[in-house]
Design goal:
Two copies of one chain form a homodimer.
Chain A: H1 17-30, H2 43-50, H3 54-66, E1 70-73, E2 77-80, E3 85-88, H4 98-104, E4 109-120, H5 123-129, E5 136-146, E6 149-159, H6 165-168, H7 179-187, E7 193-203, H8 208-212, E8 219-228, E9 234-243, E10 247-250
Parallel strand pairs in A: 3-10
Antiparallel strand pairs in A: 1-2, 4-5, 5-6, 6-9, 7-8, 8-9
């Protein structure tokens, strides 16, 4: 449909037309009118459909491509990207794991082990765990995928003495599963709350970029979460780098 | 202090040294050992202090500069940036306004009016407000500052018929104040919950960049929040672009 003329009145400035087209296309994608992988109508078709200029349509497509909704392929057309993940982070009450978040989005969660390292706790980390600085922590680093696409690089630290199995288990036991579930199974403890849980923006560095299959400098969410269990005992410290174009927080 | 040799053992890979230095410096900044505006020790001094190589120190300083903690000035040294804002977004219960968030961080909140525009509601926005598509909305756009530094470009939409004062008030009534408080005063309604409230990453475009005093392409948080009042009636739709290097979400 063409947009209401009202938005073009000169006495009241309007939401830019390209943004209206953008919002409408976003809605169509969300409702499945244009499903993931499908090709959207051509520029000229959209020009006719919306009753706006070619520059407006081009701008809307550019913005949606930059935001990870569309993917322009030279000579082939513009395609709808796989939907972003929507995971609800609940501060109080149950903590939702990445695996649960994927399931809620009808996506298959995967995990690929990158490294297991034993490190000496820094002063900050030691203070959270209630151990002496220098105490051994085990850090499990994994790439988490949704329907096979890398979404985050997760880095979870535990006190080694409390979770020795994380060092001795086979690699395959840390593959394609929930680490929350694994820890619960072996230690009887599950993360219940994450407080503080902060989210900043970081850029993909030379280590993270290839693992996440994004260019160096790609903007990422950097999440730091201090998880405690049902007894309010510190359980793990999670530091996650999440691909911005593949993720939406619902907070 | 020099880092424990344990972290250099060859049999167990360690958290990279530059990251340990980074974490330690971040801690010192957080504790006020190096207050905002102060110069941190020189590269050579840090090399001695941490007992690590110059490349390691340089990398740590680079990462902290990129993350907005430090600011290197050619020939003058490296300085601590003003702290990021930490605002608690609470999904249930009271909604914290930007002004309250600043106060909690001992920062002075400011607001500069960019525009007031009347637009026709898109299908999506109309569905939230429970009005017909095309119904007039008033969109108030302001730059929000903390201690004078632009932090976000806020874009709040209301149903014009319910909030006519937003069109008639003087510009100064929308300057350096909380729009939540203003709306409560004039309509008797306050935002109580924001659900959904999603956070994505976007890049600063040519409109937002100069207003936020960042380069075009700078990564921003893009937050979309659907606010309802105490009677669960839709009140406003907030779309905010927040400078990543000046903001931390605590969720």
């Amino acid at each position: 449909m063409a947009f209401d003329d009202k938005t073009d009145r000169t006495d009241v400035p309007a939401v830019p037309l390209y943004q209206q087209v953008m919002d409408d296309l976003k809605g169509e994608i969300a409702r499945g009118v244009y499903p993931a992988g499908s090709r959207i109508p051509s520029e000229m078709e959209l020009v006719k459909y919306y009753g706006v200029g070619r520059i407006t349509v081009r701008r809307a497509i550019e913005e949606l491509s930059r935001a990870g909704y569309l993917n322009r392929q030279q000579g082939r057309g513009t395609f709808v990207c796989a939907p972003k993940l929507k995971r609800k982070i609940v501060q109080k009450g149950d903590v939702q794991s990445f695996s649960e978040g994927c399931a809620a989005n009808d996506m298959v969660a995967g995990a690929r082990l990158v490294s297991r390292t034993v490190v000496a706790a820094t002063r900050e980390d030691a203070a959270f765990f209630g151990v002496e600085p220098g105490c051994e922590l085990i850090v499990v680093e994994r790439v988490r995928t949704a329907d096979g696409v890398p979404v985050m690089l997760e880095n979870n630290a535990f006190v080694l003495a409390d979770h020795p199995y994380l060092q001795t288990l086979a690699d395959k036991d840390l593959t394609d599963n929930s680490i929350f579930a694994l820890v619960a199974e072996h230690s009887g403890r599950a993360p219940l709350k994450s407080d503080p849980c902060t989210v900043e923006i970081a850029l993909a560095d030379a280590q993270a970029a290839p693992l996440l299959e994004v260019p160096v400098g790609e903007p990422l969410f950097y999440m730091e979460a201090y998880f405690t269990d049902a007894d309010e005992r510190p359980l793990l410290l999670g530091r996650q780098k999440i691909v911005g174009s593949r993720y939406v927080f619902d907070i």
